[in-house]
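Hi R.,

Here's the chain you asked about this morning:
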Amino acid sequence: MQNLNSSLNAEKSSTFDSTSGFIVGQRVHFAGDHRRIGTVKYVGPVEGYSGTWIGVDWDNADGKHDGSINGIRYFEAESEKSGSFVRPQNLSFGVSLLDGLELRYRGSSTKEEEEMYVLSASNRRVSIELVGKEKLEDKLSRFEELTVASLSYLGVSYLGPTCQIRSVMPNLKELDLTGNLLSDWKDIGNICEELPTLRALNLTNNKMASVMTGLPLLKNIRILVLNNTGIQWAEVEILKLSLPMIEELHLMCNKISAITPKYTSAVQGFSSLKLLNMEDNCISDWVEIVKLFLLESLEQLHLNKNSLTRICYPDEDMLCDLLSNCESTEKSIKPFNNLRCLLLGGNKIEDLASVDSLNSFPKLTDVRLSENPIVDPGRGCIPRFVLIARLAKVEILNGSEVSARERKDSEIRYVRSLLSKLHHNPEEIKHQHPRFAELKVYHKIEDERSSMGVSGPQKMGTGLLSITLKCVGASIGEKPPLTKKLPTTTTVGKLKNLCESFFKLKGIKQKMYFHEERSPLPMLLEDEMASLMDLGIGNDSVILIDEES
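And here is the predicted structure, written out as tokens:
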């Protein structure tokens, strides 16, 4: 009964304490540590201890408990060790925007901050002198000349005197408020109204409230960064009404799992939006992404580090379902008509049909597929040359430019790797490799059977390849590379036997890798029955000889 009464008393005291000045829901940081930030979850007494305590749920989970102590629950923390009780004098509820500006650009810096240095190869500090440092500091201290201001991790929690901000920073265009104590959207609206020239605003690591009332029209904002702010798509739908000219919207690390338009099945509005960054969220169903297909200005879509297992270009049935309750929309619209960059790294894509579907996006030229099962070296990955050959329009793959030379070499190599399989099951080749026939004709590559006895760069059925063999195994020792002319029909098993003779490797169990210049990792050659032609290995290639560990 005592614990129950204590819990009830804790509840009654948990909202506000006039002596401490803290209220539940308030954002605070630990005194003297602007980066240790949390949310007040309880204000009041703690049984067995004197005075008033503040129950804080820390963002970095650097606490001691889950909001309960000695069997009494005072608040619910996010995790088992993110909560703690702190005396009021050990917490700060922050400073105003103008105070933050003074701290950053006119405040006294420490000796360490004044010292400019770089790290040497041995990780030692090497002091340097910044030419023009005093002139730069003088310019930064004149706020009226500032066009860019960074006030990250200064404990900014409110606007301050609104009448002063406009006159103090009349020319500010970019403002970084990362890691502060802001949470009320009204404060954000007031900041933007008081800074009429502001174009870019970064609110990363500010836990924003889900309630968005009284937000003014922010017609000048072009770039808004809301990474790790707790925002969900329902709030984005409200926010878009205040952002008629937004061009870049960053929503990373918000645990977004669904895109939920308010009145329709597909997202509408955002007429100027060119870049949408939703990396590091929890989206697993591609149907959620298809809901963005009406964003006609969208050029870049960043979806790295989600949980997508497949992708596809929306078909007519899917579009009809999504357009059924969308007003004033042409039925003949081309989905993702202006999308040129799609980043899909770090997802769970493992099928070639998903890769092939990227050809249907009208203007897509920049694709990232790294860190997906389909390109995982440990799971028999699809090598870079195959991806290039299958993706007809891609000019940048995984951040690396695809040159005209690389595309030609990749496509020829891809076709050759399939030639030996063509006569076994031509229908299967046609179904699983949609571009094979097109590329074979385009590059004038003849079938393996028709190339018997014919010389020339495109007729490699019985030709020779120049292959450089390099030993990289630790116990093999230093051996000079060898370049040999080998038939395209040479199998991996046969090549291992040859290398045993070439490099005197008797008793060493070999592992072979095909090293491609543009690929981050060499490709393991596991199938000993596969020929050089089967593997798509072309002229002047490099094969690495390692040893089994």
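One quick note: The first helix runs from residue 2 to 12.

Cheers,
M.
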